[in-house]
Protein: CRAL-TRIO domain-containing protein
Organism: Anopheles atroparvus
Amino acid sequence: MACEQTFFPSVGSSGDDDGDALATLLEQTARTELREDERLREQSLASMRDWIRQNGRIRRCRTDDRFLLRFLRVKKYSIPQACAMLEKYLTVRQTHPRWFARLDPDAPELADILDACCLLPIGRDPTTGRIVILGVVRHFDAQRYNSDTMIRLNMLVVEALLDEEANQIAGFTHIFDNGGMTMAHVTCWTLDNLAGYLRSVINCVPVRLKENHFVSVPTFAAQISKYCLSFASDKLRSRIHCHPTVEQLRATVNPDLLPQEYGGKGPTLKVLNARFREYLASKRTMLLELDTELEIDTKDPREPATHDDAAGGELVADGAVGSFRKLSID
């Protein structure tokens, strides 16, 4: 895999050597964690495209490598599971337009909460290559905005960053600072939104979520946290880490990644956000075109085409899928 230009491209401090180090790290991760190689990648992409063409429900869908690899990589090249997730992803976009439609970073309410530094990338972990996302709950104006806006912000950030192969391969680390959280941040969530987000979005959006760090969670939020964890698999729960204080977070997360406001060696949140807004401007066309490039008929009674129908059996039996029958899912 050729290393493309990425947001937070380096795994070290600066320079071409760091870009080369990231490329090497990504190639190793793709090979060892995803079992990805050129032959498997090309066969799997061809099989997915055939499946999309023969799927009676899918009206429009991106078929470029970068988009389809989101699903293949998160499912470790199990074509049946990648196809199933793509169909779920198209369906959840169609059934929840208030969360997925018009993910425009220049839209007034999204621009407002972006500028408040509620959710933004802060760096790339030098040991894993993962992009690290920081959410600052107290910066979200829960008196003005509700959980629909919060979910749209999350989808905007995820869709933009998933357009990079580095993030598809290495995955994501999330840090949520809950210091200063108020009851308004809890009550702005309806039960329907919370259940819908946890059941639908988390299972349908192709993100390799490797670590979740929660800092300074107030006691009044304990019950909702318990409720959220009830939807998580054992594997996901094992990737959740709670830190009573920012000081304990610094003992776990590389200080080079943390912003200055958190006692780290990184830039300030303001500087990081300005850089992220420039990045989002470069992705704005792609984000808006998702509304016209993706469509599924959710009322179509026909059974969707299976991977066996699309691939003619031989590739599925002997090639990409056959290579992964014995593998566990990440």
